[in-house]
């Protein structure tokens, strides 16, 4: 078992809950209440702000140019097509600028703090731990439901497309490969810190979907 597989296996119950979450199941069927989607997108756009900074730090700490390039290409996807997806969705769902001022939910605040801490740690492996959870868990739920029901509106369909398919699988393989390669060279205390960041990120991914789903029920 690779180090990232072993880390994921330690959190199998939470991972399963994320992968089969009622929020993403409803999104893929197309019957997710739009207010829940609006709320989720506003919260997630705040998540993206710190995610971009974390990914940029990970790129800066990559051991070589070859290790940095796939991360930089992924950063271009987040700040390009994914950023545009948010703007198009806010427009289509009528989330005007003022509506984005909704209070920040506890999992959003906690996730942002985790990403900032990882970015400030100077540890490439800790940065990767958070990035791996964020992208791998999304790959797993989105691959399960892709492409979703026929005739999904784009704000549901494109969220699945952005997190599934060969291009996104390659992103996850790259991030996991970086962490798997770094792991054996880490001191035990650093491995523990990486495992802790991984565990926290898994817990927060689940809480993030739980909070969004609470808006739908
Ligand atoms: C909370 C969260 N986690 C992960 C992703 C995938 N980029 C996301 N958009 N939001």
From TrEMBL:
Enzyme nomenclature, EC number: 3.5.99.2
Sequence ranges assigned to domain Thiaminase-2/PQQC in this UniProt record: 9-213
UniProt xrefs under Pfam families: TENA_THI-4 (PF03070)
Catalytic activity, as annotated: 4-amino-5-aminomethyl-2-methylpyrimidine + H2O = 4-amino-5-hydroxymethyl-2-methylpyrimidine + NH4(+); thiamine + H2O = 5-(2-hydroxyethyl)-4-methylthiazole + 4-amino-5-hydroxymethyl-2-methylpyrimidine + H(+)
Keywords annotated in UniProt: Hydrolase, Thiamine biosynthesis
UniProt keyword Metal-binding, yes or no: no
Annotated pathway: Cofactor biosynthesis; thiamine diphosphate biosynthesis
InterPro entries assigned: Haem_Oase-like_multi-hlx, TenA_E, Thiaminase-2/PQQC, Thiamine_Salvage_TenA
Similarity comment: Belongs to the TenA family.
Function: Catalyzes an amino-pyrimidine hydrolysis reaction at the C5' of the pyrimidine moiety of thiamine compounds, a reaction that is part of a thiamine salvage pathway. Thus, catalyzes the conversion of 4-amino-5-aminomethyl-2-methylpyrimidine to 4-amino-5-hydroxymethyl-2-methylpyrimidine (HMP).
PANTHER family, per database record: BIFUNCTIONAL TH2 PROTEIN, SI:CH1073-67J19.1-RELATED
Protein name stated in the entry: Aminopyrimidine aminohydrolase
